[in-house]
């Protein structure tokens, strides 16, 4: 410790600062890469324009979108030129003996160069994807992205997609309640609660191990064959809701259980010492604290539930996927299925971003 605090003496000179590396070559490479990506973007834009014309897509919006993407590629020159400028400034500062300014300029030149490469690689991936869609006489584009067919069938697919939304919302409401009761049943106390705990574990293990499509098939085709009053005459939409509720009730019961388990035992002990019963302890102390921790994983499960509503096609419900399959079989083209995929992604992305925001908010709250 004493040696570290000693001042440098004439007999032991201080260690010299290391010189910053010359970033001019790196900046030149970044500038050349930016020029290459701009040229590749404009070549791809002309290729795409010619391919769309062959597919009878010549609208002003399509042409403007292609031109806008091509113009945006010029923004790659901004970090590349800044890297070039700062690299030369670093060399000048180094020649003048100003090591601090040289080091700052060299670091910024390196950072701007890597920004050029980062955005350039992302743009390159986009260009390769566009070329993949349009190669071989637009084979992939005609099969999956036939814009006239997408426009003609969009209304029918969107109308059928409403069935998926209804199934998702109804199932989610049932699952929230069902999973909570099953999770609480797993915590039934004492010897008297043992059979309840066993039944809850059996339900969770059974339906977590059973694929959702099999549950849908058994419920969708099995219940109508039983001839039971009320059950056998249920519409297909409610049979789908029952099947998905049974499956996702098991998954979300485990989420509830994990959230309840995460509450420190001292919270339960303190509540019981104040005279609260076991049920009131769960209701007023444990569950309210656990819910805040359970929201992100619950939302993740609901995103999966939303996607699994497409499985209702196996029992004959005319949802978006089934409607798209009908269109695909009539037109010998899968563009309508691409529309379904777009609709699912469109309503999934906001939920995924909400989950990320809730997780980040929880991290900040915990400090």
Secondary structure: elements and pairs:
Blueprint: H1 2-5, H2 24-54, H3 60-72, H4 77-95, H5 99-144, H6 147-186, H7 194-209, H8 212-226, H9 236-261, H10 265-273, H11 278-308, H12 320-331, H13 335-366
Strand content: under 5%
- Tally of separate helices: 13
User: H/E order of the elements?
Assistant: HHHHHHHHHHHHH
CATH homology superfamily name of the largest domain: MetI-like
Biggest beta-sheet profile: none
What's the CATH architecture of the largest domain?
A: Orthogonal Bundle
Q: What is the count of structural domains?
A: 2
How many beta-strand runs? 0
Termini separation comes to 34 Å
Give the low-pLDDT segments.
1-15
Question: What is the CATH top level name of the largest domain?
Answer: Mainly Alpha
Helix content: over 70%
Structural class designation: mainly alpha
> What number is the mean pLDDT?
85
**Rg calc:** 31 Å
The CATH topology of the largest domain is what?
A: MetI-like fold
Shape label: flat
Give a quick summary of the entry.
This protein has helices at residues 2-5, 24-54, 60-72, 77-95, 99-144, 147-186, 194-209, 212-226, 236-261, 265-273, 278-308, 320-331, 335-366. The chain is mainly alpha-helical.
Give descriptors for this structure.
13 helices; disordered N terminus; MetI-like fold; mainly alpha; 367 residues
Describe the protein.
Mean pLDDT is 85; it is low at 1-15. The chain has 367 residues and is mainly alpha-helical. Helices cover 80% and strands 0% of the residues.
